[in-house]
Design goal:
Blueprint lengths: L11 H20 L7 E5 L4 H10 L10 E5 L2 E3 L9 E3 L2 E2 L1 E3 L5 H8 L1 H8 L3 E5 L11 H9 L4 E7 L9 E5 L2 E5 L6 H5 L11 E10 H11 L6 E5 L3 E2 L5 E2 L6 E5 L12 E5 L2 H4 L14 H18 L3 E3 L25 E3 L17 E3 L2 E3 L12 H13 L5 H12 L1
Parallel strand pairs: 1-2, 8-16, 17-19, 18-20
Antiparallel strand pairs: 3-6, 4-5, 7-11, 8-11, 9-10, 12-15, 13-14
Helix pairs in contact: 3-7
Length: about 425
């Protein structure tokens, strides 16, 4: 639901919904059939109703509501550092979602696995919603795993440096698992092979593939075997005098399961290394933070879409008509208002750079949002007009997103 401040003003959910619609359209045209990709969205007790209301408010962004299922993961008690359960209120236990590894139990208890079975689904793509670049239902990754006859798959990126705080993919005691960076010694993190590459170079980015039969087996037989991991957090609690304390320090422990801990049960696991700049830009921190913030997420989108334009034979120019550099350069000192490439292409036009031939030899002025396809529909607007247009589209109570989607599909095909 979060709006990271793109030129279009779109939320993460809307970006992913439009990307899903585009993929359905492209695959449907390729195989001359109607394509429906079901979307299962895991929420918590605190976010489920809010998420459903958000989708309803925006008419599911043109997606048929019947192909979306919201399901809820359970919450587990929070503990203090002595192992005692914290209270949220005098008569209410403090609880928190049990980590993304709660996926398996939630899929089983909610009936989502039965729904997948009834739909004839065989392959499942799992990702975290906070990654603005995620290739939802990625056909390349899915096809790669199917080709390898894998029951489980994992996308990875090369670590930027030995000390990068990211879990690494490794073999442990004959099985595969993700080793948290805090559990990797300095010496192991620095180890290299004969070619000079880091031995533990594959960073986990929380994008996975599961075959349905494997997912059912894990959910029904192995979920209880997954370990809980402790995480120190700032948890509001009731003190001994009955006062509610909202701490500015780590006050307790949340117990979490990790989605990747099921790798140990895989009999055929496939790993695909991808280009970080193409597919991974997580949003973990608030504005003003140097890493994994709204600013870095926006920059990742703009840089990727700029590369799409260049690959299609187009160019982006400044207000004086001078072409921008082929390689966007951003500095650590860049701010929200820093000059640089700011171009955005609607996911309804392209899933991952395809279908942009109409941009060949086009010169597009920087700071634009491209939301329609075709020479006569090419739109380059000042930033304030783009935001106003996007806001009108979202806020207009009479907007029929389904009708607009069908009209857009007809104009694209």
């Amino acid at each position: 639901m979060y709006n990271i401040g793109l030129l279009s003003g779109k939320s993460l959910y809307q970006i992913q919904a439009e990307r899903l619609l585009r993929l359905q359209l492209v695959v449907g045209e390729r195989f001359s059939c109607r394509v429906v990709i079901p979307w299962y969205i895991m929420t918590s007790e605190d976010t489920k109703n809010q998420s459903i209301s958000f989708f309803e408010e925006h008419k599911y962004f043109g997606i048929d509501p019947a192909q979306i299922m919201f399901f809820e993961q359970k919450q587990v008690p929070c503990l203090d550092f002595d192992g005692k359960i914290l209270l949220k209120e005098k008569h209410r236990i403090a609880k928190a979602p049990g980590g993304n590894g709660g996926l398996y139990e939630a899929l089983e208890s909610s009936g989502a696995l039965r729904d997948m079975t009834s739909r004839g689904i065989q392959d499942i793509h799992v990702y975290c919603v906070d990654n603005v670049l995620v290739k939802i239902a990625d056909p390349v990754f899915t096809g790669f795993c199917v080709d390898k006859n894998a029951d489980c798959g994992n996308k990875v990126v090369k670590k930027l440096m030995p000390s990068e705080p990211v879990g690494v993919f490794a073999r442990v005691n004959g099985g595969f698992q993700i080793v948290e960076y805090s559990e990797l010694s300095f010496e192991d993190a620095e180890r290299r092979d004969t070619s000079g590459e880091l031995i533990y170079r594959w960073g986990n980015i929380a994008i996975h593939y599961f075959r349905l039969d494997f997912l059912i087996e894990v959910a029904t037989k192995c979920s209880a075997k997954l370990p809980y991991h402790s995480a120190k957090k700032k948890i509001p609690f009731v003190d001994t005098e009955g006062k509610i304390i909202t701490p500015s320090f780590n006050s307790g422990i949340k117990m979490e399961k990790f989605v990747f801990d099921v790798f140990q049960f895989s009999k055929s696991l496939a790993v695909l290394e991808i280009v970080r700049e193409d597919e991974f830009a997580p949003l973990k921190n608030p504005p003003g933070v140097a890493k994994e913030s709204p600013y870095t997420s926006r920059a990742a989108v703009y840089d990727l879409h700029y590369r799409f334009i260049l690959a299609a034979g187009g160019s982006v120019v400044d207000k004086n008509g001078a072409p921008l550099p082929f390689i966007p350069r951003r500095r650590a000192s860049d701010t929200e208002t820093s000059s640089g490439v700011q171009v955005e292409i609607c996911p309804s036009i392209t899933y991952f750079g395809e279908g942009l031939e109409f941009l060949k030899e086009k010169k597009l002025e920087n700071h634009f949002y491209l939301h329609k396809k075709g020479e006569d529909l090419l739109v380059t607007q000042p930033l304030h007009k783009v935001i106003q247009t996007a806001k009108r589209t979202m806020d207009d109570e009479d907007t029929d997103f389904t009708a607009k989607r069908e009209k857009l599909e007809n104009s694209i095909s």
